[in-house]
Amino acid sequence: MEYKLTAEENAVFSIIDAEFETLVARFYDSNVIFNVDKIKKSYEVAKYFHRDTRRKSGELYLYHPLAVLQKLYDDGFVDPNILAAAMLHDTVEDTAYTLDDVERDFGNEVREYVHAVTKIEASIDPLSGDTKKSAQQQTDEHMLELGQKYPFALYIKLADRWHNLHTCGKMSMDSIRKNVAHTKSVLIPLARKIGCNVIADQLRDACLLAKHPEEYANILKQLNENLKNSRKGIEKTLSSLRNALQPTAEVDTQFMFPYPCDVKADIRLKIGNANLTRSDLFSVYQYQPYVIAFCKLTEVTEKTLRGQFVKICKQLINDGIITVIDENDKPEIKSTTVSYIDVFDSYYNKIRIVLLAKQEFWKYRNPLAQHENIPHSTAAFLPSDKRITVHSKDGHPIEIEKGATILDFAFLLNSEIGAHFESAEVNGNTVEIDYVLQPEDTILIHKSEEKTARIEWFKILETKTAINRLIAILK
After folding, report:
1. Dist CA 235 CA 251 (whole Å)
2. Can you tell me whether residue 342 is helix, strand or coil?
3. 247 DSSP 8-state letter
4. How many CA atoms lie within 13 A of 391 on its CB side?
5. Residues 113, 152: contact at Cβ < 8 Å?
6. Packed helices 213-245 and 197-211: angle between N→C axes, nearest 10 degrees
7. pLDDT tens-digit series, residues 263-278
8. What average pLDDT does the chain have?
9. What proportion of the chain, given as a percentage, has pLDDT over 90?
10. CB 336 within 8 A of CB 304
11. In sequence order, which residues have a C-beta less than 8 Å from that of residue 43 and are 6 or more positions away?
């Protein structure tokens, strides 16, 4: 069955269509999704059935399921059934599209995923005596029951709530409080139960953003200022760390900040029970953020992981690159697969070095997804004020980390363009290779087969995707 909009209706979706096409280009670039057409069809169905719907913020409703789809892909899901279900997750609940329609158009597996995240309230008889509270309880029980059979569906629900909490500014405070309470009491424990600790932390952080946006913004501002003052020193230390670990490990520094919710908790712990307003917090305790460096071991088995970790840390200490914060000068071993140590570098920046066996790295990040060979975008894991939108030469919007360079952008397009970068134009003007991108820049990249990647480019690159692709090319 085809779902077609009129020309007038389609015109409304031109911008969001461009965003979806950018995501589709990433699907093809990854070369791991075997049925992109199914995802494309799910987008057309969602667009058709949500065509007359807008969110409370006033934006087209289609932005929401597309954001959930992108969240799952960025978190490592590549099964087209899961991604299609993410795009369709609200259609049965909010439109005339039924579960039978889902099964007819996409198959039973997609139906079950969508069924698992569809609220019970959508089918409750108002004359039955069921209250909203009991309906919510039934929804949670229903989701847990199906989630045991289809745990991927639970992740769709987690990503759905994550995006809702990030975009709830127009909701009433009562609704926000209810969403936050439900997230903390049900969804976060559920996420931890299935081993998805990263999105559990992201949900906890999103609760602070939703409930106290001004406080959240204040913390981020402070973190940005601290990072700005210490960035050069951090980069030098991480470069030394990267050199010390190669080829034993790859260093992934995509998490430059702790979560603001952790900052708040740490500040309150430091100042005790003093009766202070939120605006006073930073005046009494100058919080210094950790930089978290994930080191993925490439040539060590799990059996020798901890011994190798201690050996590397001792060498870094002897070289004067780091000083262990722990007074016993011993790395703290958290488990058989995850080890970390908190250190000061020579610039007195705090760095948490986390070491994992490479095969455990993405399992630690998200045990439900298969992450290998996927070009991830760091921007997806950052708060909205840490991302900017720029445009390719044909006008397509592309999201990238704030502070990224023109060379980062070339690698984000694909490894081939990055490896043979020759020059670039921004808004019609030629720029240097280390030009820092600004919001709404329009970019044209020139490449030449005579140009090849150089190790010196590590000093220019700022994003995880670009650094990982340069590492792969140089290898």
Report:
1. 12
2. strand
3. T
4. 12
5. yes
6. 150
7. 777 777 666 655 555 5
8. 78
9. 29
10. no
11. 20, 66, 69, 87
Number of Cβ atoms within 10 Å of the Cβ of 410:
26
CB-based contact 146:157 (threshold 8 Å): no
Per the CB < 8 A criterion, the answer to whether 41 and 106 are in contact is yes
Q: Report the C-alpha gap between 232 and 252 in whole angstroms.
A: 17
- Region label for 290, one of left (φ > 0), alpha (ψ between -120 and 50) or beta (otherwise): beta
Residue with tokens 């997609």: 110
Q: In a 10 Å sphere around its CB, with 0-12 CB exposed, 13-18 middle and 19+ buried, how is residue 310 labelled?
A: middle
Burial class (CB in 10 A: 0-12, 13-18, 19+), 467: buried
Q: Is 57 helix (H, G, I), strand (E, B) or coil?
A: coil
Which of 204, 226, 222 has its CA nearest to residue 214?
222
Query: In Å, how far from its chain's centre is CA 102?
Result: 28
Nearest to 351 by CA among 266, 289, 290, 287: 290
Residue 462, helix vs strand vs coil: coil
64-100 residues labelled b (16+ CB within 10 A) or e (exposed):
bbbbbbbbbbbbbbbbbbbbbbbbbbbbbeebebeee
Query: d(Cα 116, Cα 143) in Å, to the nearest integer?
Result: 5
Q: Would you tell me how many other CB atoms lie within 10 Å of the CB of residue 333?
A: 15
- Do 267 and 222 touch, CB atoms closer than 8 A? no
Band of residue 231 on the pLDDT scale cut at 50, 70, 90: confident
Instruction: Report the candidate in 243, 75, 268, 41 with the shortest Cα–Cα distance to residue 160.
Output: 75
Give the DSSP letter of residue 95.
Answer: S
Block residue for tokens 């990267």? 242
Spatial CA neighbour of 367 closest among 342, 333, 337, 339: 337
Interatomic CA distance for residues 417 and 392, integer angstroms: 13
Residue holding tokens 């039934």? 138
Active site residues: 93-94
DSSP state for residue 435 in the 8-state scheme: P
Distance between CA 187 and CA 161 in Å, rounded? 9
Q: How many CA atoms lie within 13 A of 109 on its CB side?
A: 10
Cis previous bond, 247, omega within 30: yes
- Single pTM value for the model: 0.67
Q: How far apart are the first and last CA of the chain?
A: 48
3-state SS class at 316: helix
Q: Which two tokens stand for residue 328?
A: 């016993």
Residue of 328, 246, 257 lying closest to 293 (CA atoms):
257
Q: Retrieve residue 201's tokens.
A: 């932390």
pLDDT tens, position by position, 250-261: 666 554 557 788
